[in-house]
Design a protein that fits this description.
- It contains 22 helices and 5 strands.
- By secondary structure, the protein is mostly helical.
- The longest helix has about 30 residues.
- The relative contact order is 0.10.
């Protein structure tokens, strides 16, 4: 009887434990299917693919051979990258000599049959063949030309690049494309510096300094944002031409009468010696500005002033920064005034550090607009000395058509600086857009 009672008690204890465990264990929530959310996810995924596919096609095409492009392949069939170090002696040997000696290079093994069947190609040197073989082969020379380091660490090596990546080397060397790239870097840097300074100053004045007619002037200024860019191209070119004529004709002729010549000779010679010593006599026309051999001549057309000065003020940048400055508490200005700070000190010591996200946003928009500019540079440049990278893409168009793989390789090179800048400024850019007010 006792045994039966004990067994019953244990069974009850076990049942109560299981009941407590079930009570403490949260129940599994039922799966709820929201059709609206599924549709939203499908649409967002489709939209992402729509935006990514052109970039994927551009990169894939840049790595493909002409045959792959003709067949419409989605992926390249040629190798991506093979790099072989070569000597200058090997590059100067003819292909016939290499065939006869049994020292035919391995990086040309894919086209050996084609070379053996062509008398013209066999007579070429390796260097000449690589320069005429436009697709999939490129020669790269690495040299240390940095002043002060080239004697300590001399580098002079040559490499042969085979594969789809060779198209990027060919695109870089094609028709001054590298020069166009560095021209765009200089133009973008000058425009960003100048436009940021003017935008910050003007935005602060509209936001924090009381003066008669401020709101009316700002309203009229904002109205200019609705003027199409194409409408002001010809007036701007006319104005730039007038400045060009003044600084190349009228100003040099009047320097003697204005007493500028004697003053310039006193200060220009030491400055020019420094510029010449640094190798900057051709940088931004500094050599012409400080020359002592003749009058100062400052051409605008086909030079950086025509590409930079008309864009030193931006309605959008001033508007964005003003709206951000309006959000800064007025108490900070009151505290700064008590400490004896002027408007200029308050701007640089307090306002700008707080507004870093907005400033980065304006810099990013300015860079993209300057980097992509094409119509205006075509109007004010006549030679390759200051033409931007967007113009350089036209070099890949010939009478027979476009070199599509080289054109896409050049497009990728053009896109890389924008992507790098956005990756570094992404957080600041998002914060600047999200936190900028739209009422003032």
């Amino acid at each position: 009887m006792a045994s039966t009672t004990t067994t019953t008690a244990r069974a009850q204890t076990g049942e109560s434990s299981e009941a407590r465990a079930q009570a403490l264990t949260p129940g599994r929530r039922p799966i709820v299917v929201n059709p609206f959310r599924i549709v939203v996810y499908v649409l967002l995924t489709f939209g992402a693919l729509v935006f990514v596919l052109p970039f994927f096609w551009m990169v894939s095409t840049s790595l493909q051979s002409v045959g792959d492009i003709t067949r419409g392949r989605a992926f390249p069939s040629i190798p991506f990258l093979e790099v072989t170090e070569v000597t200058e002696e090997e590059l100067n040997r003819t292909l016939q000599d290499l065939l006869d000696s049994g020292e035919f290079p391995s990086y040309l093994s894919a086209v050996r049959g084609q070379i053996e069947n062509s008398n013209r190609q066999r007579a070429l040197t390796v260097d000449e063949y690589l320069r005429t073989q436009r697709y999939g082969y490129a020669e790269v020379r690495v040299q240390n030309q940095i002043p002060g380091l080239k004697d300590i660490w001399p580098i002079d090596k040559r490499y042969v690049v085979v594969g789809g990546a060779a198209h990027y080397v060919e695109a870089w060397d094609e028709s001054n494309f590298s020069e166009y790239f560095f021209n765009s870097v200089q133009i973008a840097a000058l425009t960003i510096i100048g436009q940021t300074i003017t935008s910050v100053m003007a935005a602060y004045a509209f936001a924090r300094i009381e003066f008669p007619g401020r709101n009316l002037l700002f309203s009229l200024f904002i109205a200019t944002i609705f003027i199409p860019t194409m409408v002001v191209l010809i007036p701007n070119r006319k104005l730039v031409t007038e400045f060009h004529n003044f600084f190349t004709q009228d100003f040099p002729a009047k320097q003697e009468a204005w007493g500028i010549t004697d003053a310039r000779r006193a200060i220009a010679e030491p400055i020019y010696s420094v510029i010449d010593g640094l190798g900057l006599e051709n940088f931004l026309g500094l050599g012409d500005a400080f020359t002592v051999d003749g009058p100062i001549v400052w051409p605008w057309m086909d030079n950086w002033p025509a590409l930079v000065v008309p864009f030193l003020a931006s309605t959008f940048s001033i508007f964005l920064l003003r709206q951000f400055f309006l959000q800064i508490p007025e108490d900070l200005w009151d505290a700064a005034r008590i400490d004896g700070a002027s408007h200029l000190r308050y701007l640089f010591m307090i306002v700008l550090p707080i507004s870093r996200a907005a400033v980065v946003t304006t810099v990013l928009f300015t860079f993209i607009g300057t980097w992509n500019a094409l119509e205006w540079p075509i109007l004010v440049t006549f030679t390759d000395s200051w033409r931007p990278i967007s113009y350089g893409l036209y070099a890949f168009k010939t009478e027979a058509g476009s070199d599509l793989n080289l054109l896409m390789a050049g497009s990728v090179i053009t896109l890389v600086p924008v992507l790098i800048l956005y990756l570094f400024a992404q957080r600041q850019f998002t914060e600047g857009i999200a936190t900028t007010g739209l009422k003032g």
